[in-house]
Design brief:
The complex is a heterodimer of chains A (477) and B (491). By secondary structure, chain A is an alpha+beta fold. Chain A is built from 15 helices and 16 strands. Chain A folds into three domains: 287 residues, no CATH class; 114 residues, no CATH class; 58 residues, Arc Repressor Mutant, subunit A (Orthogonal Bundle), CATH 1.10.10. Chain A has a nine-stranded mixed beta sheet. In chain A, strands 5-4-15 form a three-stranded antiparallel beta sheet, with no helix packed on it. A two-stranded antiparallel ribbon of chain A has the order 3-16. Chain B has one domain: Alpha-Beta Complex (Amidase signature (AS) enzymes). In chain B, strand 2, helix 4 and strand 3 form a beta-alpha-beta unit. In chain B, helix 7 runs antiparallel to helix 15. Classes of the chains: A alpha+beta (477), B alpha/beta (491).
């Protein structure tokens, strides 16, 4: 039977604040266990939370970037459950009155635009982490460094109809939070994580089917695989005349399957109620206005503008705008060297390859936009060949040298473009290989490259290739 | 007179004059503890070494001409739910029997900065849940006026210590009457400040929206002095309010002529002990002589206060006490089979019956399907109760009423009847629900020699007025400062 797939996503973003949401502890990742902790984030008796205003600022940014309404009085609530990584026995979150409601995100899948509704965005604290060292049989430890680290949870409407749409939404959302500089978007490390609610229904059915919730998918690829697996699983159940059980399932990356974690009966009653230790969060119009004015250009808008302003292909614009800093870099280079397509090619073919090899970001790149623009100008002017350009680029990249003109001069890398000199060299090559010249003239045209190579060899690659080609053609036809 | 018998005000003045040293005062109080605390059982932990060191430091401070406050060198006791760095903070619970905090509550830090001497930690009902201090895991505290009777609760250790002169003053906490009721039982002054006046940071929470720390003292002037030290905004407590702290002490003697005093008729209803009513009515007539105008007022939602309170306070408590799970600190049950069993055994063995009863009540009130009928409804009624007060305060400056319908009851009298125990808080609970400041000041004795308290209630942040009225009453009535005759003492 054919079913309509219905998907809603809940995305948790760890926010890039310096300090935790309810205390002054550092959020720095990788410190020794429990170093980033204090009476507040370890739930000591009598300790009280105090809201970090920066978290509100970040949540409002996310809300405005996704067309949400900002709640003027939002309220923190306690979500009560027991687990050793949760020091207070409750998580401070938001329930009835979240900070943002009613937004949307536009995505494009297979050339079609889709609008995915965003139900709400709320602020909350993260939990700690359990450590189970193999050496200590049966003994577990708790590391509270992550406890109280700020999160926002972005809840979508059940508006997605395929795994491809879900992944497109997720990618668009990640681009946005990274552009907003509120989250590093790292799925592998868990700073951008996603749960998926999935159900199937017969085409045209008014009600949604029974859904399952999928957790533990730590990459876009796993989100796609897990959803597809779940859709097939539910389809098999329904086709066999069975009923889907409402439950939470964990995706097992290694086995490529999901397994039931807990059913509806074991679902927690979180007993939410407003946290009496915190006042309502008041965000007035002035605050919203100031956040609005400081919003950066968002990925979709930037992509459109780059295509329009620089007349480069959509595919190139997508690559360049995947990272806000990369897009800024591209625009900075173009400012000094007004050939956008050439700039885009160099960034995508050369610069990105180097950055990927070194696993560093554009912000750590030692070549300045001016430096790269100058190098491209040298190639454009014919001072050096494209091939030499790549050599110079490599040197600039490793040494942080941003004066390619001087590099070319010091190392004598400038192209040889003197017609007289080159003509003499061409004559020498033709004379030295008269046998091969005959073969060429009898039709073995492939040998042309050999003659060019010989000239290049004599000039250590610095001969102007176009001129060499022309002179050789004139000489041997 | 023995130094331990003096008021804070008197000791402060004599220390100022250099007649006595903090070390002498502290030795006197520590000696008194040795002599009588075995009988009263107000202390859970006595920090003799710490107290002597702090007394020496206070004397040194005075010698060096450093800043002096009214509590510099004064021996004070703390209810055992105030977090004290390095000093056990048990909340009178098995759950925290060996817990030593790594930080000081804000009020404790303020007392230390002010140079106070901390004698030790005082008994209470477990996690402040109770009205008699019989719910302490460790021991009950006796009423110094009649050792067969309770000292009240939950701050029974704090009030008994002041009455028995084993501390010059103490701090308690009041969630539904836990300072005022035991103060009235023990014949001392107990003040619950406006919600937000004193930082709750480091006060182990029972019900966060109701809890407030306050002074327990021999006289109204002492309460004014101690409140002045602990009050004020704290950025560690989001619910503490940022407004200036007036000089409560110097305002005490300002005339109160023309003051309008309301008498809520609902507070003089069925169940009010005739001796208590007579003492309170006499108090009103005495206050009238100051030129204050009296009138009857109505607080129509009073009847709903106890039910409202036992939904909201238990709901908050069920969440506040979730952190005692055996994972991080405090008691952990042995022989647990896995995580869930560890939780179950730890909480079953670590908490007493009353605490477990309230956790269950609160958990129920917050459960899916019941939230609207219980928790949300109770919040709405809380608003109505607050509005009752707003209305009457349009026409008067303070309210006067009894603190508790009865004087101190006997041990065991109510332990098996939680509801009757809960109802004994009927006259104090509405004040917490409305977040108002109120105090209990001694207003006489029953024929059997048991103290009676007069409750004065004021508008939010009107502690100045509250203390002025109480001070004038105290001058007229003269009940404050009386001491019980303890066994073995010379008459």
């Amino acid at each position: 039977m054919d079913y309509e797939i219905v998907i809603g996503l809940e995305v948790h973003c760890q926010l890039l604040t310096e300090t935790k949401i309810f205390c002054g502890c550092s959020t720095h990742f990788g410190n020794p266990p429990n170093q980033n902790s204090c009476p507040v984030c370890t739930g000591m008796p009598g300790a009280l939370p105090v809201l970090n205003r920066k978290v509100v600022d970040f949540a409002v940014r996310a809300g405005l970037a996704t067309a949400c309404q900002i709640t003027p009085h939002s309220v923190f609530a306690r979500k009560n459950y027991f687990y050793p990584d949760l020091p207070k026995g409750y998580q401070i979150s938001q329930f009835e009155l979240p900070i943002c409601v009613g937004g949307y995100l536009d995505i494009e899948v297979e050339g079609e635009n889709q609008r995915i509704g965003i139900t709400r965005i709320h602020m909350e604290e993260d939990a700690g982490k359990l450590v189970h060292p193999e050496a200590d049989h049966g003994v577990s430890y708790v590391d509270y460094n992550r406890a109280c680290v700020p999160l926002i949870e972005i809840v979508s409407e059940p508006d997605m109809r395929s795994s491809a749409e879900a992944v497109a939404y997720l990618k668009a959302l990640r681009d946005i939070v990274v552009y907003l500089e509120i989250c590093d978007g790292n799925m592998e490390e868990g700073s951008f994580r996603c749960d998926a609610n999935i159900s199937l229904r017969r085409w045209g059915a008014p009600e949604f089917g029974i859904r399952s919730e999928l957790k533990n998918m730590n990459s876009f690829r796993n989100v796609q695989r897990a959803i597809e697996y779940e859709v097939e699983r539910q389809r098999d159940i329904l086709d066999a005349g069975g009923r889907v059980v409402q439950e939470t399932r964990l995706w097992n990356v290694d086995r490529g399957i999901s397994m039931s974690m807990r059913g509806k009966e074991e679902a927690h009653d979180y007993r939410y109620f407003p946290d009496p230790d915190l006042l309502p969060v008041v965000v007035d119009e002035a605050w919203v206005e100031s956040v609005q004015q400081n919003l950066p250009e968002l990925p979709a808008a930037k992509r459109r503008r780059i295509v329009d302003d620089y007349a480069i292909p959509v595919a190139d614009a997508e690559v360049l705008t995947a990272d806000r800093a990369m897009a800024d870099y591209f625009e900075a280079v173009v400012k000094h060297f007004a050939q956008p397509k050439a700039v885009a090619n160099w960034i995508m073919a050369e610069l990105m390859r180097f950055l990927n090899d070194d696993r560093i970001s554009i912000t750590q790149c030692l070549i300045t936009p001016q430096g790269l623009a100058e190098l491209l100008s040298l190639i454009e002017a014919g001072t050096i060949s494209g091939k030499i350009g790549k050599q110079v680029f490599s040197q600039m990249y490793s040494a942080g040298n941003n004066d390619p003109g001087r590099l070319v001069e010091e190392q004598g890398l400038a192209q040889m473009s003197d017609v007289g000199e080159l003509a003499t060299l061409v004559d020498d090559v033709v004379e030295a290989h008269d046998g091969k010249v005959k073969e060429y003239q009898q039709g073995k045209v492939k040998l042309f490259g050999f003659f060019v190579g010989q000239v290049m060899k004599k000039t250590k690659g610095q001969a102007n290739p176009q001129m060499v080609n022309r002179l050789l053609k004139e000489k041997i036809g | 007179m023995e130094l331990y018998n003096c008021s804070l005000e008197e000791l402060w003045q004599r220390l100022e004059k250099g007649e006595i040293s903090a070390l002498e005062v502290t030795r006197s109080v520590l000696g008194r503890i040795t002599d009588v605390d075995g009988t009263i059982a107000a202390y859970l932990e006595i920090d003799e070494q710490g107290a002597l060191a702090q007394a020496e430091a206070a004397d040194e401070r005075r010698r060096k001409g450093d800043e002096i406050t009214p509590v510099t060198g004064i021996p004070l006791g703390l209810k055992d739910l105030l977090s004290t760095r390095g000093l056990k903070t048990t909340c009178a619970s098995r759950m925290l029997a060996d817990y030593r905090p790594e930080y000081d509550a804000t009020v404790v830090a303020r007392l230390r900065e002010a140079g106070a001497v901390i004698t030790g930690k005082l008994n209470m009902d477990e996690f402040a849940m109770g009205s008699s201090t019989e719910n302490s895991f460790f021991k009950p505290t006796c009423n110094p006026w009649d050792l067969k009777r309770v000292s009240g609760g939950s701050s029974g250790g704090s009030t008994a210590a002041v009455a028995a002169a084993t501390a010059i003053a103490t701090l308690g906490s009041d969630t539904g009457g836990s300072i005022r009721q035991p103060a009235s039982f023990c014949g001392v002054v107990g003040l619950k400040p406006t919600y937000g006046r004193v930082s709750r940071y480091g006060l182990v929470a029972f019900a966060s929206s109701l809890d407030q720390i306050g002074p327990v003292t021999l006289t109204v002037a002492d309460a004014a002095l101690l409140l002045g030290v602990i009050a004020g905004h704290d950025e560690r407590d989001s619910t503490s309010v940022d407004r200036p702290v007036p000089d409560y002490y110097s305002g005490l003697k300002n005339a109160i002529k023309g003051l309008k005093i309301g008498v809520p008729t609902e507070y003089f209803g069925v169940g009010l002990d005739p001796e208590v009513e007579a003492a309170v009515r006499l108090g009103c007539r005495q206050l009238e002589t100051t030129g204050a105008q009296f009138k009857d007022v109505s607080l129509p939602h009073t009847d709903y206060a106890v039910a409202t309170y036992y939904l909201l306070a238990t709901a908050e408590a069920s969440s506040n006490l979730a952190r005692y799970d055996g994972v991080k600190y405090g008691f952990r049950a042995d022989n647990a089979d896995g995580l869930i069993d560890m939780y179950r055994k730890t909480r079953a063995q670590g908490f007493g019956d009353e605490v477990k009863r309230r956790i269950m009540l609160g958990t129920y009130a917050l459960s899916a399907g019941y939230y609207d009928a219980y928790y949300r409804k109770a919040q709405q009624v809380r608003t109505l109760i607050t509005r009752d007060f707003d209305k009457v305060f349009n026409g008067c400056d303070v309210l006067v009423a009894p603190v508790c319908p009865t004087p101190a009851f006997a041990f065991g009298e109510k332990v098996d009847d939680p509801l009757s125990m809960y109802l004994s808080d009927i006259l104090t609970i509405p004040v917490n629900l409305a977040g108002l400041p109120a105090l209990s000041v001694p207003c006489g004795f029953t024929e059997a020699g048991l103290p009676i308290g007069l409750q004065i209630i004021a508008k939010p942040f009107a502690e100045e007025t509250l203390l002025q009225v109480a001070w004038h009453y105290e001058q007229l009535a003269g009940w404050s400062g009386q001491r019980p005759q303890l066994a073995g003492e010379a008459v």
